[in-house]
UniProtKB/TrEMBL annotation:
Domain of life: Bacteria
Gene3D superfamilies on file: 1.25.40.390
Domain SusD-like N-terminal: 30-234
Principal localisation: membrane
Keyword Signal: yes
Descriptive protein name: Membrane protein
UniProt domain RagB/SusD: residue ranges: 347-525
Localization terms from the record: Cell outer membrane
Entry's family note: Belongs to the SusD family.
Signal sequence interval, chain numbering: 1-29
Pfam family, one: SusD-like_3
UniProt entry tagged with the keyword Cell wall biogenesis/degradation: no
Length: 527
């Protein structure tokens, strides 16, 4: 993909990392030299194509709220892991995080407000771009650039609303830039059905916006949009909308489009051969990585460091790390015998490492998450660590597309060869034997796919949303599934049970005080 106005991929990445273009002067604002950046306002900023490029780059950068801090030893992303039952903590200093683990969180929990503010900032900047970019004069030869930029804005808005509607249900549906004078400045909540309608419309517009089929530059691609459409349709088919067969068919069809592209372009899109490649910094935005949040230590370093064990010398930093999100032993032990994902330093976990990253091997005493361990940055045998952890954060992997297709086909009552092959590809990489296709019924195959999703996507911010859309939770002891409501996480003191209210998060108390039109609070939580 070529950029007009001399904006190449390197320039876009620079803008993407600098991010806060609209908020004032930055070291990355050389392209704004025709005006004093500190005096820029929306009406004066959106005047040339470079401004549109910068605005979209800033909106991408806003997605990094995902990794922002949420009090001592915690970050926003942990909100999606703590309630799943697959994780626990080795520290106790953060009461908000402890409440998430204990399933006693409420509208005062800091992570929840951070997610609300972060998502609506993405939405606000996307809305501004969607309104202002059409008025910018683009050279006739570059009209496709305008269409692409608008498509990216609509994708990012859909990305944010898809999180919001799954976290809180009915949420304010804001599609225009707001000021204090706007009629809907204190917006009321919109039924989920209408929110999903906008998400689908935005993604369909993005799909038709002329994106590259696959991108390695951090921008969304056509295949990424198709993958998101498949996930949105699959979610709509389940709870709470319960669209059923029609949307399982839509999900299967859209996932199959991505699978067919991967088969036709095996050197561009597909599964990595090894798990270590998934956290190889040189392979960011490539192959299996359909869409990632972009990180670079020059602006924002990789934010999943709370997976490090508590004060164990696994990196060049020596005894450090918080251990505030670590695997539960019961979940780790539930993997099939021989599953490569549990092999020390080969799969998702490590049970030993090297003192200060490069020294003598020592036992950790428990399994920890190796899925994001950047060996080049942190150290390994014979490796001098760079100390610059520039890994990205996964949002959509090709593995998800394969298992979405397999699940949707099973829900449609068909275990066809394509669905079986998709399921088997995940297990093949894990070095597991897969029963023959004829041994499955649609029902048993569907449950096998669910189980594979728990194992494949652990600690990727996916499991919680699977629990909610299925209203099912994996039972580690029996390797079967419980109903969501009433399921007890035995790793929580007292065996706290999931309740009906936990299908949604509460709205932040401060947000409800600021905007009385957000009432009522989600059921089961205090106003």
């Amino acid at each position: 993909m070529t950029f007009s106005m001399k904006l190449n991929n390197k320039k876009f990445y620079q803008l993407l990392l600098c991010g806060a273009i609209l908020l004032g002067p930055t070291a990355c604002s050389d392209f704004l030299d025709e005006q004093d950046p500190s005096n820029l306002q929306p009406d004066t900023f959106y005047t040339i194509p470079d401004h549109a490029e910068a605005a979209i780059a800033a909106t991408y950068a806003d997605t990094r709220f995902f990794g922002d801090g949420a009090g001592i030893f915690s970050a926003n992303w942990q909100m999606l892991e703590a309630p799943t039952g697959t994780a626990t903590t080795e520290t106790g200093q953060n009461s908000d995080l402890n409440n998430l683990y204990a399933l006693i969180y409420d509208g005062n929990t800091g992570h929840i407000s951070n997610w609300w503010n972060g998502l609506y900032r993405v939405i606000a900047n996307a809305n501004l771009a969607i309104e202002k970019i059409p008025g910018i004069q683009f050279p006739a030869a570059n009209e496709s650039q305008k269409v692409r930029l608008l498509g990216e804005a609509r994708f990012l808005r859909a990305w944010a609303y898809f999180y919001a509607v799954r976290l809180w249900g009915d949420v304010p549906l804001i599609t225009k830039p707001q000021t204090a004078e706007s009629e809907d400045f204190f917006a009321a909540r919109t039924p989920q059905e209408e929110v999903y309608k906008l998400i689908v419309e935005d993604l369909q517009a993005a799909e038709a916006a002329g994106f590259a089929d696959f991108n390695t530059n951090g921008r969304v691609s056509k295949m990424a949009v198709k993958a998101y459409l498949a996930k949105v349709y699959l979610t709509m088919a389940g709870f709470p909308l319960s669209k059923g067969q029609s949307h399982y068919k839509l999900a299967a069809d859209k996932a199959l489009e991505v699978i067919k592209y991967a088969k036709a372009n095996p050197s561009t899109l597909g599964l990595f051969a090894t798990y270590k490649e998934l956290h190889d910094e040189k392979l960011k935005n490539r192959m299996e990585h359909l869409f990632q949040i972009q990180y670079n230590t020059a602006v924002a370093g990789f934010p999943l460091n709370d997976f490090f064990p508590n004060f164990k010398a696994v990196t060049y930093s020596g005894p450090s790390g918080t251990g505030s999100t670590v695997p539960t032993l019961s979940f780790y032990n539930s993997y099939e015998t021989g599953d490569l994902r549990t092999k020390d330093q080969d799969g998702w976990f490590y049970t030993s490492y090297y003192t200060n990253g490069t020294g003598d091997k020592f036992e950790l005493g428990a399994p920890y998450v190796f899925k994001y361990f950047n060996i080049a940055a942190l150290g390994g045998p014979g490796i001098t660590p760079t100390r610059l952890n520039n890994l990205n954060v996964n949002q959509m992997r090709y593995a998800d597309v394969l298992l979405m297709y397999a699940e949707a086909q099973a829900e449609l009552g068909t275990v066809d060869q394509e669905a079986y092959d998709a399921f088997k590809a995940i297990r093949d990489r894990a070095k597991l034997k897969t029963p023959a296709i004829g041994t499955f019924t649609p029902a048993s195959f569907k449950e096998a796919v669910w189980r594979e999703r728990w194992y494949e996507f652990a600690y990727e911010g996916i499991t919680w949303f699977d629990m909610v859309r299925l209203r099912k939770v994996f039972v580690e002891a029996s390797k079967t599934f419980d109903n969501f409501v009433g399921h007890k996480n035995m790793n929580v003191s007292g065996g706290a049970a999931l309740q009906e209210k936990h299908l949604l998060f509460p709205l932040g108390i401060q947000e409800m005080r600021n905007n009385p039109n957000l009432k009522p609070q989600n059921p089961g939580y205090q106003q």
